[in-house]
Amino acid sequence: MLTIERQELILALLKEKEIVSVHHMCEETGASESTIRRDLTELENKQLIKRVHGGASLLKKKREEPTLLEKTTQHQQEKELIAKKAVTFVDDGDSIYLDAGTTTMSMIPHLADKSVVVVTNGIPHVQLLIEYGIETYVIGGKAKKGTAALIGTKAVEAIGEYRFDKCFLGINGIHMSRGFTTPDPEEANVKQAALRNSQSCFVLADPTKFGEVSFANVANIDQAAIITTEGISTEQFEKIAKLTTLEVIPQ
Amino acid sequence: MLTIERQELILALLKEKEIVSVHHMCEETGASESTIRRDLTELENKQLIKRVHGGASLLKKKREEPTLLEKTTQHQQEKELIAKKAVTFVDDGDSIYLDAGTTTMSMIPHLADKSVVVVTNGIPHVQLLIEYGIETYVIGGKAKKGTAALIGTKAVEAIGEYRFDKCFLGINGIHMSRGFTTPDPEEANVKQAALRNSQSCFVLADPTKFGEVSFANVANIDQAAIITTEGISTEQFEKIAKLTTLEVIPQ
DNA sequence: ATTTATTGATTGAATATGATTGACTTTGGT
DNA sequence: ACCAAAGTCAATCATATTCAATCAATAAAT
């Protein structure tokens, strides 16, 4: 058996079982302990596995980011619902803007079977978009600490060079009179630019964002449709529904 | 049996089984080891297969586990050495351009304790740069499938809006007369733009890249300093060292 | 007839392998 | 806590396999 085959086999074994003993690897591959150990040191150097006494375990790979989406907290499930709903507004052939943020990121897997062109300022989004084979453009700009969202004048200018059929934004505050708000003024500028250059705009927000007012103003309440889940008070619903489209997803 | 026939057969064998040994190929084709090896070198040059010790494996497709291994398989430690050396050329306060690619990515952890501003077209780079608290700007552009490198006219234009003290590029081919080359013309354009806007330029390449010529031209050999590890033949070293700076790291 | 291409055999070098050794780690009993 | 036995480890060695380079023989083309 070839070296590379054996190493692939070891990785395969580890994928099935979290920890595999050297002895078991010997049996499966028919190789001697020495050889297996050598393979393990190699695979460890390549940062693919972690050695433990008596065997090895799979190192969690950076590639397996998708688990990030699969987190099963209540919050994540809500985001997933909102994202799914948002994608129903997307048509084949659309050019869309995806704002940075986890909610918009959840849209990506559902976008896979539509033929769309996506522009985004979210770095984590790009990797996921590529993985799902979606044609992706990235605006330029300064990468913000923490979220790696692209912001700044360069980002705003770059957005100006595109026209979108639809844009999808995350937001921190939704308020009747103060409109949409977000903590970072630089991010607000980027969101505004996206709104300016898009035919129709959607804001994705869980119910906790309603009634909140954040530092930087993004837009008036009637400048974007809102997609959210149940939990918003009926009186608030009534008022806002008069000003803009408000999609509420039943839980 | 004709050469073509035999090579087709080899490819067919590889399609059935991800990895095939030289020995098995001999049996199937009736040819000698020498002949099979010659075929393999040819097929490897045509980028159809990848050789491994004792046999060959199919390149392309199967975006599963193999690629992960393949990617990290070669020269991981070498890349680390090259990256480390490259960082020694970086001064505090520099504005630098980091080309997409795994070698330049290895530079990032070592950049952490310098105060630099980094511009890059590599999406995976951005996350890492942010993690290490480095001030990061991203050029815009189209995200290339597979590597997520940013390319296209927008990328080239965006680079034009910056001036770098130093730029660090990965490269596929280094050839005395043909200079630096890379498979993707669009990536070549981006690299050229980086070279144009940088005071001093460094190419990071392992020794296997020397003597190679890839499809798209990037620059002449004297337009960038080269950082590599031992393994390059002394005669090649002599010749190239006359044309440009050539840093060779002892193993 | 001469050149060119293809092939198989041979070579020393590079690489991979299995067994052995002594040091280290874990386990289980006192 | 201690010790001893069993298991596991890295390092080393000799062997076996695989490699690229070279050579000579044969077949095809000029």
TrEMBL record, chains A, B:
Which residue intervals define the domain HTH deoR-type in the entry? Answer: 3-58
Query: What's a Pfam family this protein contains?
Result: DeoRC
The answer to whether the entry has keyword DNA-binding is: yes
Q: Which residues form a coiled coil?
A: none
Any keyword Methyltransferase? no
Listed Gene3D superfamilies: 3.40.50.1360, Winged helix-like DNA-binding domain superfamily/Winged helix DNA-binding domain
The GO terms this record gives for MF are: DNA binding; DNA-binding transcription factor activity
Question: Which UniProt keywords are listed?
Answer: DNA-binding, Transcription, Transcription regulation
Q: Which InterPro entries match?
A: Carb_Metab_HTH_regulators (IPR050313), DeoR-like_C (IPR014036), DeoR_HTH (IPR001034), NagB/RpiA_transferase-like (IPR037171), Tscrpt_reg_HTH_DeoR_CS (IPR018356), WH-like_DNA-bd_sf (IPR036388), WH_DNA-bd_sf (IPR036390)
Q: Which PANTHER family match?
A: HTH-TYPE TRANSCRIPTIONAL REGULATOR SRLR-RELATED, TRANSCRIPTIONAL REGULATOR, DEOR FAMILY
> What's the name of the protein?
Transcriptional regulator, DeoR family
Per the UniProt record, the source organism is Gracilibacillus ureilyticus
